[in-house]
Task: inverse folding
């Protein structure tokens, strides 16, 4: 991949069986990012999909010159994000879910706040959820425990979109290949003492596909939280 001069923003989209959602997300995101007046790229990572996600990415690349397609065979939210980030060329990097539950305009709002306030990390804090009561309870308990265990100042630790400087990403050495990549980023940022910020957002119900969060995901979070907490 030839480096693009003055690339300012790289947005990674991890996608496992998200072809229909990508059809909606990419036109909206590309239109939104085109308003910043700076070079940007949208990196879609096909994360071991078994539907027509790969074919959809090929079509989107033809329609939208800013779209880059990558295939990551190791299934995992973190694996897909890291694959995209390691190929990103922007001064500011970040990611958004492919499920269309976050507005593309939220990426722009977070990007502007990060730049204007000279932050190393800026993320979304969801004001509402559409995942059901059980997921809401789990999320509330998880965030409370996380803030207590790691003395975190941020809310909604897994809130996305997340954007951060390329410099922070290089120094943080993010390694989680599962869903713990979200809290790992926050833990590393807090440990490094960098400037962080949040932007409140509203979310939308998922129209297509299914959430990849399972009971195993909760177990992984607990194990990883305990592991990182012991290293403090």
Result:
């Amino acid at each position: 991949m030839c480096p693009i001069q003055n690339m300012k923003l790289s947005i990674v989209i991890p996608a496992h069986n998200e072809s229909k959602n990508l059809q909606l997300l990419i036109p909206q995101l590309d239109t939104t990012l085109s308003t910043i007046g700076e070079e940007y790229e949208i990196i879609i990572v096909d994360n071991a999909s078994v539907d027509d996600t790969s074919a959809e990415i090929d079509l989107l690349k033809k329609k939208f010159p800013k779209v880059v397609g990558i295939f990551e065979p190791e299934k995992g939210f973190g694996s897909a994000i890291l694959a995209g980030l390691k190929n990103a060329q922007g001064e500011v990097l970040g990611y958004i879910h492919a499920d269309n539950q976050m507005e593309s305009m939220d990426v722009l709002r977070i990007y502007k706040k990060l730049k204007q306030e000279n932050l190393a990390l800026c993320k979304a804090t969801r004001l509402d959820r559409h995942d059901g009561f059980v997921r809401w309870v789990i999320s509330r308990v998880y965030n409370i425990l996380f803030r207590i265990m790691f003395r975190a100042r941020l809310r909604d630790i897994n809130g996305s979109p997340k954007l951060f400087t390329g410099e922070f990403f290089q120094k943080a050495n993010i390694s989680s290949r599962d869903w713990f990549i979200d809290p790992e980023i926050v833990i590393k940022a807090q440990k490094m003492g960098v400037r962080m910020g949040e932007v409140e957002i509203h979310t939308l119900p998922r129209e297509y596909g299914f959430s990849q969060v399972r009971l195993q995901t909760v177990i992984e979070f607990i194990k990883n939280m305990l592991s990182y907490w012991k290293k403090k």
The longest helix spans residues 133-150. The chain is about 45% helix and 20% strand. The beta strands are 7-15, 39-47, 67-72, 92-95, 121-126, 162-165, 196-201.
